[in-house]
TrEMBL record:
Protein name: Enhancer of rudimentary homolog
Organism taxonomic ancestry: Eukaryota, Viridiplantae, Streptophyta, Embryophyta, Tracheophyta
Source organism of this protein record: Castanea mollissima (Chinese chestnut)
Matches recorded under InterPro entries: EHR_sf, ERH
Assigned protein family: Belongs to the E(R) family.
Pfam family, one: ER
Keyword field: Cell cycle
Function recorded in the entry: May have a role in the cell cycle.
Length: 102
């Protein structure tokens, strides 16, 4: 599943104008992108702190705090995109970060 084009759909608030997307060449890159999005938000909220750390629960709270987040992952066998929900994204980010830690 590593090299499957992935589109992350995000809505940051109830305002429909906050809908946006990020697209990546792989699921792994998409999970990096989600972590990067959270890290940028942390830096924005804490500009004076040079080294910001967080744990998986903090990342999950960020994901859950969004109005909506889902993923579309390209599946070559059907030549189309399969939808995945926020829980799948949280599971994938956990496994992705776990791999990076080892």
């Amino acid at each position: 599943m590593a090299n499957k084009h992935t589109i992350i759909l995000i809505q940051t608030s109830q305002n429909r104008a906050t809908r946006t997307f990020m697209d990546y060449e792989s699921i792994s890159q998409a999970m990096d992108g989600i972590c990067g999005l959270y890290e940028r938000k942390l830096k924005e909220l804490n500009p004076a702190i040079r080294n910001i750390t967080y744990d998986i629960a903090d990342l999950y709270n960020f994901i859950d705090g969004l109005a909506d987040m889902s993923a579309l992952v390209y599946d070559h066998s059907i030549q189309g995109y399969l939808p995945y929900d926020r829980e799948w994204i949280k599971q994938r980010t956990f496994h992705h970060l776990k791999k990076l830690a080892h």
